[in-house]
Amino acid sequence: MNDHVRKRPEGAAMDRRRFLTAAAATGIAAAAGLAASEGPARAAAAPRPAAAGAFRVPAEDVRHTRTWMAFPDSGSIWGGKLSGVQSDIALIARTIAKYEPVHLCANSASAARARSLAGPTVTVITSIPVDDCWMRDSGPVFRTDGAGGLDAVGLNFNGWGGKQTHARDALVAGRIAAYAGVPFTAAGVVGEGGAVEQDGAGTLMATRSSLVNRNRNPGLSQAQVEAALRTAYGASEVIWFDGVAGQDITDDHVDATSRFLAPGRAVVQMPLATDTDAYAEDARRQYQVLSAATAADGTRMAVERIQGPDYGKIRSTNRDFLASYANYYLCNGAVITAHFGDTRADAAARATLARLYPDRVIEQLNIDRLGTGGGGIHCVTQQQPVR
């Protein structure tokens, strides 16, 4: 799950997905009991020593075996928004399935609805229970060694610092690794996939506000968090952004603002000049930091821009809405992104992505219901690369 780049009235609360946090108190209290009741499943996916060799998280644009997603069914989390969010998840899954296989994890009680909405091209499985739909954060981070080896790392998902129920989602990474039949290792850091971007060649981007935070990693310094990230991702360089702490449930994830295009190349979603909220200022700082940064091989970063929309012209009037073109997902042969109703900005974003990814089809979807939860397409997907 991911946040960001939102324009709100001055003084308005900026709790991303505020309506979800009401479930946190009871959900987190129940988490320990549920996790304990699922002890055998946890044991089956227990962390094992990392496989030998130079394992590294590849860039997202490599070929995928499949995409992993999750189908939400919790009324206590989503309330009256649930049906629309389910429809948006199914739309994303169906669209990706045009290009590569999709495995959609659903609870048994909602599997029939998931299959009905997603259609026959999407594989719905019930052996991996879920709390919510944010597979980027709860799912495993797959790694390859360039010689046919594949394993997975779990980032010890803790509900974005204990803000939401996550007993099932805390087990998703290990269970998917077990399903895929690959070794699974727990990282030495607590975090989420949306908080880290990788270029596949040794460089990461990450936000301090999310990862160097006592609600994830109490007592760990930035240097210690960085060392754990480098080990987990097989990287040697981390480009840090300050981020925005305490303003949304994720404490500001990077993947709705800055993305790698290739080793030494990145793109940042830029706000309008008139946008002055915390996320707009953070986006400008991210652009400045990236423009002065070097990649793992010592080359200066080349930074592109993608213009964000005018929040006064988008369809949604929800103040927690995420309108991020940068929160796109790369699947085999396509870029899956969103449009928001600012027709000029939507068209310009499509053109920019077509220029940046000339060999891929650009698919723009209306996922406004999901966006009211403060997330986007990248937030709800997790790639499994080809070995």
UniProtKB/TrEMBL annotation:
It holds the Pfam family PAD_porph. The keyword Transferase does not apply. InterPro entries: Peptidyl-Arg-deiminase_porph, TAT_signal. Keywords: Hydrolase. The keyword Hydrolase applies. This is Agmatine deiminase family protein. It comes from Streptomyces polychromogenes.
